[in-house]
Amino acid sequence: MGNSLGKIYVDGRISQYEGYLPDDWMGHALDTSKPAAALSEIVADLLLAWRTVAYTASMPVTVIKTMQAAMLGYARVVSPDASVIAFSDGVLARVSQRIPDLVEDRRLRERLVRELVTLGDEIRAQRATLTTEMPVEPIWQDFLKQDAFVQGVWSSQRVSFVAFYNAYEAFLVDCAKRALGVTQLRAQDKQFPESLRTAFGTDLSVPCWTHPEIHIARDVRNSLSHAGGRETEKLKKQKHGIRLEGGVLQIIPDDNHRLLRRLRNGVDAVIIAAAAHLKFA
User: Fold this and answer.
1) Is the same domain home to 195 and 230?
2) How far apart are CA 253 and CA 259, in angstroms?
3) 212 within domain boundaries
4) Which of 75, 111, 164, 237 is the most buried (most CB within 10 A)?
5) Looking at 128, 163, 197, which one is the last position of a domain?
6) How far is CA 16 from CA 61, 97, 168, 207, in A?
7) Same domain for 261 and 166
């Protein structure tokens, strides 16, 4: 959805801001890597990083649902008897100022208190039978009218894209270093693709590094980190599929979901190869 902020676009569908990391995939990754102790530790580090980033990417919907839960909880609060009696006394005190007979006739006053308490019980019983509903969508749409919230939503997806990719890159480097038995290796090194081709006994360079989608993701990460999110000359030559507003990349949940689907394939390939590698035992 567009807004008054110019070069900012956010996805107005609240459902898109959830489900970044399937629990079953995470469990499978941990189980598959468990026999290889060194690999299991590296995988656990990646999943921790991804899980925390996923919380950041989901923060917009988490805020709204937390508010909804709090409002529903407040709506279901039942006033205790002490509160009802205190309210009754307060009402009678005010009424007595206008109707002096209430002060003089104690039996009438006591009867009124009993009736107010009984009425309170009836109201509470009736309220307990009602189903309290508070749809989340209207709350979400109201928040999307606030520029500060929209900017936070916009930023959460940009930050998450960079963090998801960076954690994946660190995972690849750590695994390659372990397989090669070296302490110094960087993803920026020219020999890094060759390391992925030779380190694991099977060529992992294509599914993990040179695949077109991963190559584009790397260029998008670089744009967000070093070019203010502007579409670089490299990206202009590629079909990256990311929406542009004023020449600026607009990262929405679909982009992060697509990124993670591709990166999970790379992680799966590394785990299968590394689990059988002696250096990870």
Assistant:
1) yes
2) 10
3) yes
4) 164
5) 128
6) 9, 59, 22, 26
7) yes
Higher pLDDT pick, 55 / 88: 55
Q: What value, to the nearest 5°, has the Cα angle with vertex 167 and ends 189 and 233?
A: 60
243-245 and 248-250: which strand pairing?
antiparallel
Q: Position of tokens 């039942």?
A: 78
| Residue span of the structural domain in which 86 resides | 77-128
| Single pTM value for the model | 0.80
The two three-digit tokens of residue 207, written as one number: 């599914």
Domain check: are 61 and 151 in the same one?
yes
What is the number of domains present in the chain?
Answer: 2
Query: Could you give the CA distance from residue 256 to residue 278 in angstroms, rounded to a whole number?
Result: 34
pLDDT tens for each residue of 92-119:
666 666 666 655 666 766 776 677 667 6
| Residues 233 and 156 reside in one and the same domain | yes
- Tokens linked to 97: 């100022």
Cβ of 206: how many Cβ atoms within 10 Å? 15
Domain-located, residue 3: no
User: 168 and 223 share a domain?
Assistant: yes
Answer yes or no: do 220 and 189 share one domain. yes
Q: Which of 89, 90, 80 is nearest to 120 (CA)?
A: 80
Residue of 61 and 82 predicted with greater confidence: 61
Model pLDDT, residue 114: 72
Beta-carbon contacts of residue 265 (< 8 Å; ≥ 6 apart): 207
Among candidate residues 143, 162, 121, 153, the one with its CA nearest the CA of residue 10: 153
Residue 190 pLDDT greater than 80, yes or no: yes
